[in-house]
Amino acid sequence: MKKTFLITGGAGFIGSAVVRGLIRSTEHDVINIDKLTYAGNLESLREVENGPRYHFVKADIVDGDSLRRIFRDFQPDVVMHLAAESHVDRSIDGPATFIETNIVGTCQLLEVAREYWQALKQRDPDKAAGFRFHHISTDEVYGDLEGTDDRFTESTPYVPSSPYAASKASSDHLVRAWHRTYDLPVVITNCSNNYGPYQFPEKLIPLTILNALAGKPLPVYGDGRQIRDWLYVEDHARALVKVATEGEVSETYNIGGHNEKTNLAVVEAICDLLDELVGTAHLALRSHRDLVTFVADRPGHDRRYAIDARKIQRELGWGPQETFETGLRKTVQWYLDNETWWRRVQDGSYQGERLGIAI
Questions:
Q1: The domain that contains 216 carries what CATH number?
Q2: Is 164 marked active-site?
Q3: Cβ burial, residue 277 (10 Å; 0-12/13-18/19+)
Q4: pTM assigned to the model
């Protein structure tokens, strides 16, 4: 059955992958709400922006009146909440923005969704019965792992380490409270580290690729032995749509890539791919690995994350299609092939273009 998906943060890295995937492979309508902060980029949606099933609205999720107009005008069947401030270093330098967007914004969205859903039960009970609020979160809410064999499960206690992780943990608790108190039909997902095309260059993988191409130092925190589970963004997008459409109300699903790598190993793998694909003659280096530079560790840096994704595999039949090696090669090649995109992101020249409908 054709549905209307309302996606917050749809111009961001993960959100744009969800939007592209929905438009490419389904008949659903997609409403993209995005404030277009520094990491929101409509150029990531060029392939779908003129399609009849896609609509963009420039709005801030902390603005309840704007959200109410959007719900009234588009009558969504599914809300997928991806809008968030998400960079740990930025949260350490300025936590207040993370509290405002990730906590206050989530509260506003929940309240508007609740009002909409409760009214919908009166006028269209069948549509109300199928309504879902899908909150997309992170494995960072769990803190870190001590052992080498442990994994985060859906019942792992929350022990967030950074202001970013704490703000996401808070938003998770709000979503569960709105289900418990108001019976709002919600699902939650917690994912591991994403990577892939269109990722903003402040994150580890695109930052390493672009610094290496420019012959700049490749900063690695501490000893580089922090371990993360890496998830290709298009695999994640498929999982999110599956949870939004097939997941059980009130359930949480962990989504991981089954690809645990140290940060240093990730950086070195990128260097090796660049040695192969572009060479080093232009840099007068033996290898891009010569650019690796160890820097002081970030405060409160979690040592290891690892996701147990057996529940979503068992109950919904989802599994990643990309290994880390295949996904990383696709990612590096994408950045090599899309210099115009990342240069415009770096210099900010894409900002202010094609802003859609102003609310």
A1: 3.40.50.720
A2: yes
A3: exposed
A4: 0.94
